[in-house]
Amino acid sequence: PLCIQLINPNTSLAMTEVMAATARQVAAPGTAILAVCPSEGAPSIEGHFDEAIAAIGVLQQVKAGRDAGVDGHIIACFGDPGLLAARELARAPVVGIAEAAMHIATLLATRFSIVTTLPRTLTIARHLLHQYGFERHCAALHAIDLPVLSLEDGSGLAQQKVREQCIAAKKFDGSGAIVLGCGGMADLAQELTLELGIPVIDGVSAAVKMIESLAALRLTTSKHGDLDYPLIKPLSGRFENLNMR
Ligand SMILES: O=C(O)C[C@H]1NC(=O)NC1=O
User: Fold this and answer.
1) Nearest-CA residue for atom 3 of ligand 1
2) Cα dihedral angle (234, 238, 242, 245), rounded to 10 degrees?
3) Whose CA is nearest to atom 9 of ligand 1?
4) Residue 234 and residue 170: Cα distance in Å, rounded?
5) What lines the ligand 1 site, CB under 6 Å?
6) Which of 86, 132, 209, 224 has the smallest CB count inside 10 Å?
7) What are residue 138's phi and psi, to 5 degrees?
8) Residues with Cβ < 8 Å from 64, sequence gap 6 or more?
9) Does residue 102 contact residue 74 with C-beta atoms inside 8 Å?
10) Could you give the ipTM of this predicted complex?
């Protein structure tokens, strides 16, 4: 049996639960999902500043997961905060939900659109497209212009806006697939795929299946070169617990 650590980099328990439920729905029968979020940090991640704060919490959770012997780590925030640093720390695979969703989209369509939350996070998605080499594949990016936690306020307004943006993206972007640009949208993908008749991809689900595939292939994070374990040095203060033993 596999154990996959699902890390919500923000501290909102409701969002952690939404993502954990979606992950468990798609996980193989033998796969356990260990859903965690940092004990301290940002309640939502909506910019470069929030991402820098969240990255430390991600690293602390990755270290705990590695010490617990998990078979993979998911960074369940669309900015993939701390991804490469986490890969240095981890032995098992580390997959971000943005890269997972983008990879899956490129297997299904020649062009995809992204629908995310606040306009200011569109730049973060653009940076990831560049970093992962998917700029050519992304036809357009859209924001619902609501904050991340509006997805958890129970009004359904954010979910309605996501639906509207997906319908517009299908109609006007020339995209064959849509990537949902927030972990809190994880529970919307299946229904939107059925309603729109095109792949609407949630990165949480995509990341679960990618880690299961990597485990089945017996492949783990390369420790040769820049993703080798961090150099040993005396980390001080709050970072002491990140010391590599
Ligand atoms: O950037 C975003 O809009 C989404 C991103 N922020 C967050 O707290 N979880 C996320 O997936």
Assistant:
1) 117
2) 50
3) 77
4) 52
5) 10, 44-46, 77-79, 116-117, 121, 148, 181-183
6) 224
7) -95, 115
8) 36
9) no
10) 0.97
Q: What is the 3-state secondary structure (H, E, C) of 100-159?
A: HHHHHHHHHCCCEEEEECCHHHHHHHHHHHHHHCCHHHEEEEEECCCCHHHHHCCCCHHH
Q: Is the pTM of this model over 0.95?
A: yes
With a cut of 70, list the residues of the chain below it in pLDDT.
245
Q: Which residue has the tokens 């705990």?
A: 64
Helices (H), the chain: 13-26, 48-67, 83-89, 97-108, 122-132, 157-172, 189-196, 203-216
Q: Which of 118, 182, 204 maximizes ligand 1 atoms within 8 Å of its Cβ, making it the mutation to test the pocket? A: 182
pLDDT for 198-232, tens place per residue? 999 999 999 999 999 999 999 999 999 999 999 99
